[in-house]
Amino acid sequence: MELNENMGNEEMGKILIVKLRNQAFSEEKIDKNLVKLFLGGPGFAIDYMMRNKIFELNPLAENNPLIFMTGLLTGTTYPCSGFYSVTAKSPLTTIYGESLSGGFFGAKLRRVFNGIIFQNKAESPVYLVIDDDHYELQDATSIWGLETRKTIQQLQSELGKDFRVACIGPSGEKLIPLASIINDHGRAVGRTGMGAVMGSKNLKAIVVKSTKKIDYFNEAKFKEISQHLFQAFKDSPMAGIMRQIGTNGIDYFETIADVPHKNWSLGKWSGIYKISGSVVAKNLLVKLRPCYLCPFSCGREVEVKEGPYKVENAAGPEYETVAAFGSMCLLSDIEALAYINDLCNQMGIDTISTGCVVAFALECFEKGLISKNDIGFALEWGDPAAIIKLTHLIANNEGIGNILSQGTRKAAEIIGKGSSKLTAEIKGLDVPMHEPRANFALGLQYATANRGACHLRGFGSDIYSGFAKFYKYFNIPEEIPIKLRTIDNPNFAKDVVISQNLSEINNVLGICRQTFSSGSQIVEYVFDLLLDAIYYLTGIKFTLTELLEVGERIFNLKRVFNVRCGISKKDDRIPEKLKEPLRKGHAKNKILTIDAMLNEYYKIRGWDENGIPTQNTLTSLNIIEY
What we know:
Blueprint: E1 2-3, E2 14-19, E3 24-29, H1 32-38, H2 41-51, E4 66-70, E5 84-89, E6 96-101, H3 105-110, E7 115-119, E8 126-131, E9 134-139, H4 148-159, E10 164-167, H5 170-173, E11 181-183, E12 187-189, H6 194-200, E13 203-209, H7 219-234, H8 237-245, H9 250-255, H10 277-283, E14 285-288, E15 300-304, E16 311-315, H11 319-327, H12 334-347, H13 351-366, H14 372-375, H15 384-396, H16 401-404, H17 408-415, E17 425-426, E18 429-430, H18 440-448, H19 482-485, H20 492-509, H21 517-522, H22 526-538, E19 540-541, H23 544-564, H24 595-605, H25 615-620
Parallel strand pairs: 2-7, 8-13
Antiparallel strand pairs: 1-19, 2-3, 4-5, 4-7, 5-6, 8-9, 10-11, 10-13, 11-12, 14-15, 15-16, 17-18
Helix pairs in contact: 1-2, 2-20, 2-23, 7-22, 11-12, 11-13, 12-15, 18-20, 20-23, 20-24
């Protein structure tokens, strides 16, 4: 790694510290060494959390900080650079919690601060206003209780349309562990319950406006790379597909056995063809809603003009939402799914975990583990009225929703009767909507991901399908057919490690994963250009090996945090639900096991046989001090 001598000792950004109880503020400059070690985003967050021993705290205690961080490239001219992260100890999983969101809020924030750390708790509801160098906490009593769209509309009405807003809805105010944070037009900090942590601090919203510009080491060279990448991405076939159907390629994913059905119990379901992205485009699409500087434009605005599922100015349902409430619940009404997606966004609640807990409840009802008397109405697969009613109860923490809103792991503990066998969660986070029984390496990724089962903390869904062309840069196979990726092959462990480290880099840079996955098939030297962009922004020159080491450092430090929370090999597991073989589809009769891969994974990671990073590993990654 080289540091340009012409950089001097200039600051590399700053972080705003907000003490909510006494409304005190301070600014901390970011040291160059911190950038070299962690780059930004969740990297800065885990450094802070470890130094302050956040692993010892109760997730909803007022001394559990809420950490907003932008990525190193967020808000620059680099394509798809609108992402920010929110980190805290999770009230859902009680371990490391983190989620990212796109849109425009992060890009605005980055021009003023690299991040904000909220400490303790306000005496009454407040929101933070940042207007360039001026910032203050304002009384939020009048907007407490409002849904997210109304909150954003009211704040922009009072302050101006050029302010960007991130806020919680009623679910976050009620401290529901599934609560999300919503910004812009339906962009969500969805997973691990960051909305509940925000609600526990009486913090309703952050509102940001800035006219500042980002400082570059060589702005002309940086923009030259950005413009080249933007045009290449925009002109690609992948961008054309994304503009047509967004992320909802559920009909394609079905052809590679990637879609779960009926709470992970079916291998095929014909209803997917009624809820695909092309159906949304034909019947509901109003216009595209791309994030900041995004040439792919997967975001969209939809409406249902009339009927019981009438919605307007609504964000289009992403693939994960359509699968969680659609195929997982056998709901084939696309208008109902659009309504449910909007309901969750307005209440501020994660669509993946909420859809999973609804599917869990449906199977519990089918098997007689809960009854009509417990719920107040009958639950039937594919019944839109019942599914919507149950979602309302969960989002409002009412009735049986008071149990289900705790997530499937806790709900199963309360319901009992063997219902835990019907859950598919790892470390308390519900498995997302990609089928590991068709890709055992993805199962290993889920089992070892630091925030719990996650498709976005690795590229396990992409590397063997031929979707990402990482083989050009890394020692990863080009493409593997389903029959060869449904075995417990220890050789896959290396690929998962590389994929996870790469994903950490993606997230700390604050750019969309499309720039890595799709980018690797669109632009021949995409990672070389990325390294050059980092240099032209910061003056710090990384090799690709050094960049991956940053990802490895961050991944391991998150693991250390989790180890301090009690995580070990016992938690790196596949749920019993996913060990049951499917009877139909391309992955039929496959029994998901990861034992051989996991043992090899630990060796490659430099962890002991119980999944604990060794002293030698921590020393080699320069994180032994934690």
